[in-house]
Structures are given as C-alpha cells and as structure tokens.
Amino acid sequence: MAHYLADNPAPEAVAALPGLTLLEFGVDWCPHCQGAQALLAQFLTSRPQLRHLAVEDGKGRRLGRVHGVKLWPSFILLRDGAEIARAVRPQGLAELESLMRGV
After folding, report:
1. What CA–CA distances, in Å, run from 92 to 37, 65, 71, 73, 98?
2. Which of 15, 24, 71, 74 could make an SS bond with 54 (beta carbons 3.0 to 4.6 A apart)?
3. Where is the Thioredoxin domain (predicted)?
C-alpha cells in the first residue's frame, strides 16, 4: 500500500489550510523515507490534532518545488499555510519534536 499521495494537492489548496499541517515529502521506494516512518508514527501518536499530508515528490511535482524540497524525506510544518519549521532526513525523534518549538 502506498504511503505517499501520488495525486498532490495544489499549492494554493495547501496554503489555504487552517491551523497546523505537517507536510511529508518523499516516495515509497526511498530507503530514507521508509526508515523515517517509525519516528513519524511516534511523533504523530502524541499529536492527533496535527493534520498530516504525505505527498509523493519528484520531477514535475509542483508542491515540492514550491516548498524547495531537495532531499527526502522532508517534513515541513505549516501554520495557516505558511512554513514555520522544517526537518530534512531526521535521524531521531528529537529532530521531529523540534518542529513544534514555538507552536
């Protein structure tokens, strides 16, 4: 079963989302993305109110280009559609936890 949405939402739709949203950029075949899933599950378990969108990235994927994604997985925390924090290829839970500082 695919984890990442192949049909990406439009950047304008994501920018219009109210509240907090965690964007996760990656692809299902990426070993770094696969390795981050246990950390992500831990992080999200204690934050059921956090909207999470896992979107497939790559060539021609506009949402990833708008957000300047270069490496997978990239996690971008948005507040009311604007980026407030980013974690790229997190190696530990602390890196994901740091996204929530100042929220």
Report:
1. 11, 26, 17, 13, 10
2. 24
3. 14-100
pTM across the whole model:
0.95
Mean pLDDT of the chain: 95
3-state secondary structure of 75: strand
Assess contact for 56 and 64: CB atoms under 8 A: no
Record the tokens describing residue 52, joined without a space: 């999470």
The amino acid that residue 9 corresponds to is P
39: nearest Cα among 102, 99, 103, 81: 99
Angle at 79 (CA atoms; ends 93, 55), nearest 5 degrees = 65
Mean pLDDT confidence for 80-99: 96
